[in-house]
Design goal:
Helix content is about 60%, strand content about 15%. By secondary structure, it is α+β, with helices and mostly antiparallel strands. A hairpin with a 6-residue loop joins strand 2 and strand 3.
Length: about 120
Amino acid sequence: MFRNMVTSLFKSEDERILTTDAKAKELRRVAEKMITLGKRGDLHARRQALSYIRDRDVVAKVFSELSERYRDRMGGYTRIIKVGNRVGDNAPVSFIECIKDEAEKKTKKKAAAKKS
């Protein structure tokens, strides 16, 4: 189940999925381990990631795009945002997402400040 979830997290365009709180907390451990493997970048780390993720395109994204984005960060690559409760069974639901680059946020803030 977590293999599919971590693949969906990295494969989605906005790198964000909706799930229950308990699953999100466990998925954070797996996702951060995969990004750490991507930062290592050697052949053994790639094979370890491929044994868990099993989608070559997603592994290539982790080792190229995500490893460069989080090169200077020592951990905390994901964020959990609590949304509320699910309608059917009242289970607590939250988004888990990969944190975007701080440089992008700073340029967006500067551009918004210039416009106003």
